[in-house]
Amino acid sequence: MEAFDDIRPYHDHEVRPTLARLLQNKDLLSVMAQHRHPDLTRKFSGIMTWLTAMVLKHKTRHIQNVRDFQSIIEPYLTRVIKTTTDKVTFSGLEHLKKDKAYLFLSNHRDIVLDPALVNYALYQNGMETCQIAIGDNLIKRPYVSDLMRLNKSFIVKRSLTGRREKLTAFQNLSAYIHHCIDSGQPVWIAQSEGRAKDGNDQTDPAIIKMFNVSRRDKQTAFADNIRSLNIVPVSISYEFDPCDCSKARELFEKQQTGEYLKADDEDLKSIVMGIEGYKGHVHVAFGKPLSGKQAPQNLENAISVAKEVDHQIHHNYKLQPSNLFAWEAIGNNVIKQEPAIQVPDISTLFPDTDLKKKRDEFTRHLERCPEVYRPWFLRMYAQPVINRFRYGS
User: Fold this and answer.
1) Structural domains of the chain in order of their starting residue, each with its CATH number
2) pTM assigned to the model
3) For 176-257, where are the E strands, in sequence order?
């Protein structure tokens, strides 16, 4: 068996067989038919599923490799950006060299769009797109796994329970990430497991430790192993999160009962909602690499690396008017154990913005959320303000 076969994306020679398998998958064809033509599919399920298969077969007839597959996704992503955002902006691309592979360590708000937007920025800048780390909780259905692995995704085995199994999986994952960077293939991975549903972007030191676990026997320093990965912190901000009400509901239920049980199709619904929902202004900020002459010196352990990543993500996070309106609504001291922070006046932060129009828009958005969930809704939008100005920066 080839190294990393159980987690890696598909190779070019596997594309056609995988597409053939997908075009015969009744679950996938049914989901796509229901999504595109719900009324007709309810009445004529068999016919609509067959028609969907024929359309997909025609659209994918020329696809022979991964690049071909991504070439049909790029126009779709462009259309999503045009129809669900007011604008998408980027910053920090000047920190990146086109001939270098980076490990993009990103905050995480949306299952699909976070890495897709990073790849979109790289693609538009003439750079190689990333391989994308996804949790195995998202690929319970075989067709989802196939689609993800066709699109340069590799698998993070989060569902393992045995200690020895987890360690082996971590070592394999760590080795695979180093293999990608060493071979010139950039990687995207989230800074912690799962989306930051409360808006509080924090790097899990366990992920930093995972990066190093495959190198512990090579007698190289921890800091050198980290620098070799060319880590770039990435901050992604959405003016409006299409999944904000569902995230607030989950936070509410966890607070009330101590747990939240997902429905079987909940992740799939979140994916669709995140892609199709209105987002307003979206910004992707690339930080400075933790390698090279300008790299921070204090990278001696996982906690110090996590702090540096957090600092860049919080500092580079593009605040939106929605964040400031939420901050105003909850007040300065509503979050316990947080020191009082000084936040500039909103008109100073957004001097060229029609703030009345933005406030009305935010109010309408808030009112769509059931009242019982609104405190959690406001917290998730206000938290980036706290993170940004916590240190007076």
Assistant:
1) 66-317 (3.40.1130), 319-393 (no CATH)
2) 0.91
3) 187-190, 231-238
